[in-house]
């Protein structure tokens, strides 16, 4: 299984991505919503639906690698075009969940549509790079 680096502070996310890019040829980035500790559920229903397949086909297959997970709060994300992950020239995040594969400072693979998270071959491809 992969080592997850979970970051909730957007100010530290991009520097952490830069640092991890120096350690690994490719970096898997997962953007997701926060989980409510009282219910155990993600505020983002799409994230909740995608989680089992992300865990099974990405996280479990990325043994020996570090995965950077950006965890966003609903109030900072929903309806906010100015969120740093949306504004980032590299990430260009449109929604959560999103999975990105970054190599050489560029996004080379992206999963962000509902059907992407049902596509086992696509999800497995993130760990084959």
Describe how the helices and strands are arranged.
Elements: E1 3-7, H1 10-23, E2 26-33, H2 45-59, E3 66-72, H3 74-77, H4 84-87, E4 98-103, E5 106-111, H5 120-125
Parallel strand pairs: 1-3, 2-3
Antiparallel strand pairs: 2-4, 4-5
Structure write-up:
This is Thioredoxin domain-containing protein. Residues 13-127 form the Thioredoxin domain. One of its GO terms (molecular function) is protein-disulfide reductase [NAD(P)H] activity. It comes from Halteria grandinella. One of its GO terms (cellular component) is cytosol. The chain is globular. The protein has five helices and five strands, in the order βαβαβααββα. The chain has a single domain (3-125), classed as Glutaredoxin. A hairpin with a 2-residue loop joins strand 4 and strand 5. The protein has helices spanning 10-23, 45-59, 74-77, 84-87, 120-125; strands spanning 3-7, 26-33, 66-72, 98-103, 106-111. With 129 residues, the chain is of the alpha/beta class. Strands 1-3-2-4-5 form a five-stranded mixed beta sheet.
